[in-house]
Every structure is written in structure tokens, then in C-alpha cells.
Amino acid sequence: MKEFDYVIIGGGCAGLSLAYELDLHQKLSSKTLAIIEPRKEYLRDKTWSFWKVSPHNFEDCVRKNWKEFSIKKPSSSKVIRCDNFPYQSIDSGLFYNKIINKLNKNKNIEFFKNISDLNIKNSFIFNSVPSLRNTSSNLWQHFYGVEIETNEDFFDDGIVDLMDFNCDQRNSVHFFYVLPFAKNKAMIETTWLSKQDLSLKDYESQIKNYINSLGIKNYKINFKEEGAIPLFYPDNTGEKNKINIGTAGGMTRLSTGYTFLNIQDHSKFIRKNLSNIEKARKFELKIKYKFLDKIFLKVLERNPEKMPNIFYKIFNGYTDSTIKFLSNKSSIIEDILIILKMPKWIFLKSLFN
Ligand SMILES: Cc1cc2nc3c(=O)[nH]c(=O)nc-3n(C[C@H](O)[C@H](O)[C@H](O)COP(=O)(O)OP(=O)(O)OC[C@H]3O[C@@H](n4cnc5c(N)ncnc54)[C@H](O)[C@@H]3O)c2cc1C
Questions:
Q1: CB of 83 within 8 A of CB of 319?
Q2: Domain end: 164, 197, 230, which one?
Q3: Which domain does 182 fall in, by range?
Q4: 36 CB less than 6 Å from ligand 1?
Q5: Measured from the CB, is residue 254 less than 6 Å from ligand 1?
Q6: 237 C-beta neighbours (distance < 10 Å), count
Q7: Domain co-membership, 151 together with 184
Q8: Best mutation site among 16, 21, 85, 129 for ligand 1 pocket (most ligand atoms within 8 Å of CB)
């Protein structure tokens, strides 16, 4: 059986981002890498969006940049400019193509379907397969979206609707998310922050009703996306000669689900420390974000009806600081500014309970 210096388990976002980063910086010219990925072919399956707070390798896979986004709740709405940190959407189809084409040119990199095809005894492992307990007490960000094309121009393609709370909440937290790629093309997602409750999963009718409520009559669906992001950390533990990456490595920001840029930062960290990776410190999201997100999710669980107002308030003033906070790039002063915007009493109650 073949042996490799490095093995990446899972050739998804984190596995491929890491392989690309290593290949790009010539870390695989004298070392070998195996990527274990069971999927038969790489097709577009996700849309990764985020505020661009740091550079990444995939600018050429960005489908669109926006400099404005909106938050809507019953009775009010606001548009927020984000010139310094544009909101970007990456097309996973372009991302997979770009990386696979590059990796295929390196004879030191090979893809396998099963780990049992290799001898991994002496390899360093990067694992991106999360071990998740789907217990009834866990919160998820679960969603379903369709990319539609309308007959006539309908959307303002300069503004992302980040959260539209004008919808049925069902004692939970529910909003619609609209990414207008063109005046006649948009990704529309119904998003829930809740336990995995089957009664909330009539996604298709939620989407249909929402599109109707916007006044769109004639449209066709070009693409569908369904997913669930765990708002808790997976059980994967680090072992000797093994590092967890991606969702498995705790790269998801639990209050928002944003993971893509954290994966890129983690890949850079591994590349820089590769020669001494066994001894390098563990790369983690800062403890302050983990602590604040834990309280935030407790508040969310106990007070779902208050969340539209809370999300709305987070974007009251100092919006660059808010974006940096939500993207884990804020300073202490900026953290304090965000904390001061929150309703004190319910956050204190959740902190001490
Ligand atoms: C639909 C969807 C949309 C998202 N949108 C955003 C977004 O807009 N912005 C953002 O920041 N984050 C987003 N996320 C969160 C996060 O960025 C993604 O989940 C991202 O794909 C995580 O990367 P990953 O490598 O950890 O997992 P994945 O990309 O899921 O990769 C894991 C890989 O492991 C493979 N695999 C599974 N089982 C095995 C096995 N036994 N052995 C070997 N390989 C295996 C899978 O086939 C897969 O390719 C989204 C998540 C989902 C599900």
C-alpha cells in the first residue's frame, strides 16, 4: 500500500483550501499528499459568502461583490454600507475547478476514495470530517435556497438582503436571505436558527410564499442549495500527528455560521508552521468570541422572539466594527461597542444561568 507524507481526509472546502495553499507555496515539491474524498465528481453545491475582512486565494471565484446590505424587520428596515469590507459570494463550482486543475498538475498529489487504500501509519493527517452529535438540544443554522431567474428585471443587484425577518417565526428564529447576482437573478434562502425540528422544514412552500410576497410571478429555478451548519463544536479531538480542519476543526463562528474565511486563515497558519506542525500551537478562534457566542446562543434559545430586534440593533452605528466583530477581527474597544448595543438584562441573565 502507498504511503504519503501528508493525508487530507475530506476534499471539501477546508481540505482543498489547505492543499491549494500548500501547493501554491511549493510545500509539496518534495513532499507527498493524498486527499481522501468519496464524492464521484465536483459540482457546484454551495455558495460561500462573507464580508471580505482579509485577503484569500479565491478572488477569481467570486461571483459578486456588494457594498451594501439590508436588515429588515416588521415595521422597519435599514441599508448599511460596507465599502471597506465588501460582502462577497464564492461559487463552489469555480472554486473546485480552479483547485482541482492546479492540484492535478502536481505529481506528488493523489486523490483516493477510501482511506483503507493507503498506509497512513507514518503520515501526518489533516481531518475535515466532523464527528457530530445530532442531539435534540443542539442548535443548527439550517436553510434551503433557490437561485431564480425572473423574466423581467426585478432585483436591486447592489444590495444583499442579509436578514429579512418579515416572515413566520414559529417560536423560533427565521429570516430570508437574498443574494441578487443580477437584476433578474438571485439566490433566495429561507434560514432557521433552531433545533433540527422537522416541522420547520417545509422549506419549498416557505420559499414559494416569500417569492410570491415579493410580487414575483414568472421565474425559473436554476440551482438549489440545502444545508445545515452546526452551531456547536464537533466532537473531533486532536491526536498525535493529526489536526482537525474546517467545521471539524472548530472553524465555524457559532453566532453566524461564517466559516469560509476562518478556513483560509487556518490553511495559511498550517502552511507557515508546516515544518514544525506537531509542535505548533493549536489554531483556534479567539476565546473571547467563543465565550460571547455561547452567551448569544443562550439568549437566542431563550428569547427567539427578541432576536429580530437584537440583530437589528447590532447594526446600529459603528457598522465596520460590527462586521469586524462578526468576522473575528475586532479590537477590545470594538467588542465593547458591540456589547453596549445589546439589551443588558437578558444577556446578564443568560450569563449567570
Ligand atoms: C450549504 C452550505 C452553505 C454554506 N454557506 C456558507 C457561507 O455562505 N459562508 C460561510 O462562511 N460558511 C458557509 N457554510 C459553512 C462552511 O463554510 C461550509 O460548510 C464549508 O464547506 C466547510 O468546509 P469543510 O471542509 O469543513 O466541510 P465540507 O466542505 O463539507 O468538506 C468535507 C468533505 O469531506 C468529505 N467526506 C465526508 N465523509 C467522508 C469520509 N468518511 N471520508 C473522507 N471524506 C469524507 C465530503 O464529501 C466533503 O467533500 C455553508 C455550509 C453549507 C452546508
A1: no
A2: 230
A3: 140-230
A4: yes
A5: no
A6: 8
A7: yes
A8: 129
Helical ranges in the chain per DSSP H: 13-24, 92-103, 203-214, 260-273, 287-302, 307-314, 319-326, 332-341, 344-352
User: For residues 304 and 226, what is the distance between their CA atoms, to the nearest angstrom?
Assistant: 23
Determine the atom of ligand 1 nearest the C-alpha atom of 247: 26
In a domain, 77, yes or no: no
What CA–CA distance (Å, rounded) separates 35 from 111? 5
- Does residue 70 fall inside a structural domain? no
Is 125 in the same domain as 17?
Answer: yes
Q: Which of 36, 37, 256, 264 to mutate to test the pocket of ligand 1 (most atoms within 8 A of CB)?
A: 37
Packed helices 319-326 and 332-341: angle between N→C axes, nearest 10 degrees: 100
| Ligand 1 centroid distance, CA of 332 (Å) | 31
Residue nearest to atom 46 of ligand 1 (CA): 10
| Nearest protein CA to atom 41 of ligand 1, as residue | 129
Confidence of residue 137 (pLDDT cuts 50, 70, 90): confident
pTM of structure: 0.96
Each residue's pLDDT tens digit, 230-287: 999 998 887 889 999 999 999 999 999 999 999 999 999 999 999 999 888 899 999 9
Q: What's the average model confidence in pLDDT over 113-142? A: 91
Q: Is the CB of 128 under 6 A from ligand 1?
A: yes
Q: Are residues 173 and 44 in the same domain?
A: no
Residues in a beta bridge with 145: 189, 225
- On whether residue 82 sits in a domain, the answer given is no
Please, what is the average pLDDT of the chain? Answer: 95
Residue nearest to atom 21 of ligand 1 (CA): 13
User: Are 149 and 205 part of one and the same domain?
Assistant: yes
93 and 242 housed in the same domain: yes
Residues 124 and 244 in one domain: yes
- Is 109 within 8 Å of 103 (Cβ atoms)? yes
The number of folded domains in the chain is 3
| Co-location of 124 and 11 in the same domain | yes
Cα of 29 to ligand 1 centre, how many Å?
27
Would you say the CB of residue 45 lies under 6 angstroms from ligand 1? Answer: no
Report pLDDT digits (tens) over 169-207. Answer: 999 999 999 999 999 999 999 999 999 888 899 999 999
